[in-house]
Design a protein that fits this description.
352 residues, 50% helix, single chain, mainly alpha
């Protein structure tokens, strides 16, 4: 991605694009016929990417003859300058809030190749309330789940495994947005939490897992107290969860702007074939990480039905997802991706 270089304007020059194009549109909102109009050859105030500065006040008879006359002239100048700046703000502030794009520039000023927006652009203001609400809710949920996990006797015995599951689930969704915001900020929108992006089947799957855990512990109560050490299967599930989460988040960080939650059908300038780091072990480490994380959650809960269901359904989902994604990757990178595919597996059992 080639961001616009918003360099500090100097000497009346506008922002320079990455391909060295510069332009200076005519100044607007200034009337040269007014006696107190200011020269546009100086630099001090930003207007549409340019800077102008009002010169020092001049007098017809040269320097003022007395301190009083000088003070009065400075007061008049300050008032005029303030009025000038206020009027300029009213006319130019809306345009300052929007970044210039190739489509908004005159044809003579368009760069020779498409200009990518800045890499570290903040999310649109309209997205901030949604992001704040989701982050706040997930933070409260994960905090409550952590307290209940560390104090298992607060809940009835048949619920003692659920808090850690909820903690792992809320942490997963928080990390999805956090990794996106840090390494692919253009996609940092409310949907990056993946709370509703996976559809109804995703929500039903997690509700089914919690329901099976509750029913199993109600119908077949364990004689092991909640404060006892985790079983071997629970420890195995915990290892799968931690490694799977780490694998997925590391994959998102390593791919950077090349990672997207939506399968891409058109190649962008930021797309690159990543084959190093965790991608040297798996062609799709984010998918592999999630598969092992999901299997680990069911081992932790002691759910045998959902363990099989999660493993099989997610395997089928990723088979289709990998097939569709790799069709595009072969178009994007040709033989380079074919060689990489032959060399590196996916990391999910029976999925090549």
């Amino acid at each position: 991605m080639n961001p616009i270089n918003h360099s500090s304007p100097r000497n009346g020059h506008s922002d320079s694009f990455h391909n060295s194009h510069t332009f200076e549109p005519p100044l607007s909102g200034i009337s040269p016929s007014e006696p107190d109009s200011y020269s546009n050859s100086h630099s001090a105030f930003l207007q549409n990417g340019h800077t102008i500065e009002p010169p020092s006040p001049s007098y017809s008879n040269g320097s003022p003859s007395s301190a009083a006359k000088s003070a009065r002239a400075n007061d008049i100048f300050s008032i005029k300058a303030e009025s000038y700046h206020s009027a300029l703000l009213d006319t130019t502030l809306p345009s300052l809030r929007s970044r210039p794009t190739p489509s908004s520039l005159p044809s003579t000023l368009k760069p020779s190749r498409p200009v990518s927006p800045p890499l570290l652009s903040p999310p649109p203001l309209s997205d901030l309330p949604g992001i704040s609400i989701r982050a706040h809710a997930l933070g409260i949920l994960s905090g409550a789940a952590l307290v209940l996990t560390l104090n298992p006797t607060i809940l009835p015995p048949f619920l003692h495994r659920l808090p850690f599951y909820i903690l792992a689930l809320s942490t997963f969704h928080l990390l999805e947005f956090q990794a996106t915001a840090l390494y692919n900020p253009f996609c940092a929108e409310p949907g990056a939490f993946l709370l509703g992006a996976n559809g109804w089947a995703y929500n039903i799957a997690h509700l089914s897992a919690m329901s099976e855990c509750i029913l199993t512990n109600l119908l077949f109560p364990s004689t092991t107290p909640p404060t006892a050490r985790p079983t071997s299967l629970q420890i195995l599930g915990l290892i799968f969860m931690l490694l799977g989460q780490a694998f997925r988040t590391t994959a998102m960080a390593h791919a950077g702007s090349a990672f997207n939650h939506i399968v891409q059908t058109r190649r962008r300038a930021s797309h690159k074939l990543v084959t190093t780091g965790v991608y040297a072990w798996s062609r799709h480490p984010a998918y592999a990480g999630f598969w092992w994380w999901a299997v680990g959650t069911q081992l932790w809960l002691g759910n045998w039905v959902c363990l099989v269901g999660f493993a099989v359904l997610l395997w089928a989902f990723f088979v289709d997802r990998v097939r569709r994604e790799e069709e595009g990757l072969r178009r994007f990178f040709g033989d380079e991706y074919g060689e990489y595919r032959e060399r590196v597996g996916v990391g999910i059992p029976l999925l090549r």
